[in-house]
Protein 1
Amino acid sequence: MTEETRAAAPLTERQEARRRAILRASAELAGRGGFDAVQMREVAEAADVALGTLYRYFPSKIHLLVAVMQDQLDRLHTTLRKRPPSGERASERVAETLMRAFRALQREPHLAEAMVRALTFADRGASAEVEAVSRRTTAIIVDATGLDRPTADQLCAVRVVEHTWYSVLIAWLCGRASLDQVRADIETASLLVDR
């Protein structure tokens, strides 16, 4: 079941519960062993669903792990709305928000690696899922700015910040960036939203 199918036909309560169980099982497997630990048959067993059912919801491991990332971002967004960032300037709030997101991923590096790897490997077949992740990330950053109706220029700055965040996350996961470098890059990119 692709993102477009879900948009056309809302899930029943039972289907949504099944989908949540699949996402939970996938996140747990990825959290223990990263991308390679997520095998569709093991996900189906852990979620207590038939393998065919799993494939109806998620046609591939890439689709599945990108959906896990969207789910993680949804949870983060809910948390951030309950406890919004406190900086005076928009750039400070954006940097604080993205560092909170980074620290959450840092606590589960195997899960972070699996999700980012799936996002990086995703082809056009998973474009709806990738776009959903991007929309959620954009919404998180826009909320942090405090802007009700961002202009085209402001949305461009948000996209650059979003790209920088993913880039430094990849660099950190690959061992090419320290926590100080991650923070410096996020803070520098976040200055764009103050323009």
Note: The longest helix spans residues 61-82.
Protein 2
Amino acid sequence: MTVQQSGRRERKKAATRQKIADTALRLFLERGYDAVGIRDVAAEADVAVTTLFSHFACKEALVFEQDEDFEHRLTRAVTDRAPHEPLIPALRREVLALVRHCTADGAAPIWHMIDASPALRKYDESVRLRHAEALAAAIAADPALTRSETAARTLARFVIDAYSLSREASDPEAALDEIFPMIGAAWQAAPPRTPPVSPAGAG
């Protein structure tokens, strides 16, 4: 397969995924999440049920179509930041961008739907935990960030909670201005990573 053919195939795959997600969200908002089944979405999007499941693992995932992109953006805030750029401002900048995206016009009905559905709330919690673990792994893997794995996981949880809290605030940016100094102070207070102990007699 040539590079051009591969690129065309990936674009077609992405377009199909987006069509399914857009169709599902429209149906969920029109009829109610619980009233719409997987087969309804597949029929409306004009795809086979197997095609739908090749893009989305479950019904709940249809509502969180962008969660993988969000996860990648969070980890890239760590891995792609400029040399010597402090970690906390880089994370705050990305969290603010994500919050702005999720509070844009038209987003409120989606969050109301999520809040009203126990299944979607539970899935949302699992997504946030996965994002926190991915972010923690990126922080722990950065040799310039000399904190322990526990500190990295703690920071990641704080950051994900900051996203959730600021998204729900009437002034998200003001909320982040209040939250991130506390996160930064906690990160600064974390003890440095303990170097591995050399085996006895080594060296």
Note: The first helix runs from residue 3 to 31.
Protein 3
Amino acid sequence: MEEIAAPHPSVEMTVNSPEQMRELGRRLAKLLRAGDLVMLTGELGAGKTTLTRGLGEGLGVRGAVTSPTFVIARVHPSLGDGPPLVHVDAYRLGGGLDEMEDLDLDVSLPESVIVVEWGEGKVEELTDDRLEVVIHRAVGDTTDEVRHMTLTGLGERWAAVDLSVLVA
């Protein structure tokens, strides 16, 4: 008899401004805990760093959250008793887990919340449990701030998480 996998919890939403994207990050932070991996996928300018900035605010971490494109990864220590935020830009990484470990982050990944931009096809092997956030925006020369988002929880960690609380 074939085992049928439970559906992955998923929610779709529309975000209409950078301020709403940051607020979504603040709300999402309340669902996160140490050891969580959040994988962000979206075009340049989709709002990945803006969402992560809100996550940092919600997690109460030190330091301004900016794109780590040139340093590849930044660690933002918690200002309280929460987990640090490790913000990774995997755009220039070629090979996944080995390169992540080579970054020599002075933090234990299982004790941190890890947010990876451009991580698709590169960091899935870090854990079976992850939250995948896909951000779609109008492509081309546009000032449109509307983003259509899909958040999907994968693995046992996310099986019982009610992502619908994020839809305001």
Note: Strands lie at 10-15, 37-42, 73-76, 85-89, 113-117, 130-137, 147-154.
Protein 4
Amino acid sequence: MKAMDHSTRHTDTGHGHASWAMAAKATLHCLTGCAVGEILGMVVGTALLWGDVPTMILAIVLAFVFGYSFTLFAVVRAGLSLRAAVKVALAADTVSIAVMELVDNAIIALTPGAMDAQLSDGLFWSALIGGFAVAFAVTTPVNKWMIGRGKGHAVAHAHH
């Protein structure tokens, strides 16, 4: 019987299984980058009195930038070239960030008054944080499914 190497044990792709804890950790990692970018985008757009669409576009773009950056820095630190690290970050995070952003921004957009709320309004922050919570709940099973198939965050774990 062949022994599994470290990356196989980590992702368990040989068995088509990923633990909920592994999926939650991957989602939390992704959520952290997304939240930094999203909050920064919402704060900047709101402070500059931009409309809903430009504010959401900025928030989504920054969520992707920060989400990818967190993975990018980790795999570069692990020894990958920048080019290889970019490929890993794109493979690891694209679906996770896209699902998270779709859910989070839908919650914010559908919460009455949230897009018109100011930074000092509780509604602004509760819609944003509530959107993150729902996005985490929706994205975790997606990440579990992808990791179990050797995709998504499993790609990045092979380089940690």
Note: The first helix runs from residue 6 to 11.
